[in-house]
Amino acid sequence: MGLLDRLAGLLGLKKKEVHVLCLGLDNSGKTTIINKLKPSNAQTQDIVPTIGFNIEKFKTSSLSFTVFDMSGQGRYRNLWEHYYKEGMAIIFVVDSSDKLRMVVAKEELETLLNHPDIKHRRIPILFFANKMDVRDALSAVKVSQMMLLETIKDKPWHICASDGLKGEGLQEGVDWLQDQIQAMKI
Ligand SMILES: Nc1nc2c(ncn2[C@@H]2O[C@H](COP(=O)(O)OP(=O)(O)O)[C@@H](O)[C@H]2O)c(=O)[nH]1
Ligand SMILES: [Mg+2]
């Protein structure tokens, strides 16, 4: 059973589909986290093997996920921005152990929040302060300060410390996201 089974089941009853975007820099732990979350009945869709732009897609009866790296000096930006419109919830993964690249992650977040397809929508954003197991990793509070999350006023957001390898912290995040999606009354 994946951690999302309960959420997928709940939405399946309503016959609704929710599209979740999972974003973050490469190496932040997106693939690891998503694999932990994947419901047992998930079907992997077209994994586009574009060189330098890695996108993963999978789908259950009621949830569909698109996962991609916001890296590559924006070279692939127009490819990934294409997916913003359909996103109804965002999971943004940050590597808490990589202080240098957190500045880049912060800039990518800023660009995301200012995008016309995101800016005026109340999309819930779940942040994972991932790799909390690494020595010297920043705490979720510190990550939230570095990423200037308090400046996000017009969207519900939440941050959880996570260990993608062990799966720790993921359920708390998914529970929050589930509440947000339920509140969306879709
Ligand atoms: N120590 C530690 N390593 C992690 C964690 N999550 C992912 N990793 C490792 O970080 C690397 C990048 O992970 P991956 O999921 O491929 O990142 P992606 O590029 O964002 O999809 C891999 O070697 C993972 O095993 C974590 O919570 N703690
Ligand atoms: Mg990946």
Automatic annotation (TrEMBL):
<dbReference type="InterPro" id="IPR005225">
    <property type="entry name" value="Small_GTP-bd"/>
</dbReference>
<dbReference type="GO" id="GO:0003924">
    <property type="term" value="F:GTPase activity"/>
</dbReference>
<keyword id="KW-0963">Cytoplasm</keyword>
<dbReference type="InterPro" id="IPR041839">
    <property type="entry name" value="Arl6"/>
</dbReference>
<keyword id="KW-0206">Cytoskeleton</keyword>
<keyword id="KW-0970">Cilium biogenesis/degradation</keyword>
<keyword id="KW-0472">Membrane</keyword>
<comment type="similarity">
    <text>Belongs to the small GTPase superfamily. Arf family.</text>
</comment>
<keyword id="KW-0519">Myristate</keyword>
<protein>
    <recommendedName>
        <fullName>ADP-ribosylation factor-like protein 6</fullName>
    </recommendedName>
</protein>
<dbReference type="InterPro" id="IPR006689">
    <property type="entry name" value="Small_GTPase_ARF/SAR"/>
</dbReference>
<dbReference type="GO" id="GO:0046872">
    <property type="term" value="F:metal ion binding"/>
</dbReference>
<feature type="binding site">
    <location>
        <begin position="130"/>
        <end position="133"/>
    </location>
    <ligand>
        <name>GTP</name>
    </ligand>
</feature>
<dbReference type="InterPro" id="IPR027417">
    <property type="entry name" value="P-loop_NTPase"/>
</dbReference>
<dbReference type="GO" id="GO:0005525">
    <property type="term" value="F:GTP binding"/>
</dbReference>
<keyword id="KW-0479">Metal-binding</keyword>
<keyword id="KW-0449">Lipoprotein</keyword>
<feature type="binding site">
    <location>
        <position position="31"/>
    </location>
    <ligand>
        <name>Mg(2+)</name>
    </ligand>
</feature>
<keyword id="KW-1003">Cell membrane</keyword>
<keyword id="KW-0460">Magnesium</keyword>
<dbReference type="InterPro" id="IPR024156">
    <property type="entry name" value="Small_GTPase_ARF"/>
</dbReference>
<dbReference type="GO" id="GO:0060170">
    <property type="term" value="C:ciliary membrane"/>
</dbReference>
<dbReference type="GO" id="GO:0005930">
    <property type="term" value="C:axoneme"/>
</dbReference>
<dbReference type="Pfam" id="PF00025">
    <property type="entry name" value="Arf"/>
</dbReference>
<keyword id="KW-0342">GTP-binding</keyword>
<keyword id="KW-0547">Nucleotide-binding</keyword>
<feature type="binding site">
    <location>
        <position position="72"/>
    </location>
    <ligand>
        <name>GTP</name>
    </ligand>
</feature>
<feature type="binding site">
    <location>
        <begin position="24"/>
        <end position="31"/>
    </location>
    <ligand>
        <name>GTP</name>
    </ligand>
</feature>
<keyword id="KW-0966">Cell projection</keyword>
<dbReference type="GO" id="GO:0030030">
    <property type="term" value="P:cell projection organization"/>
</dbReference>
<feature type="binding site">
    <location>
        <position position="50"/>
    </location>
    <ligand>
        <name>Mg(2+)</name>
    </ligand>
</feature>
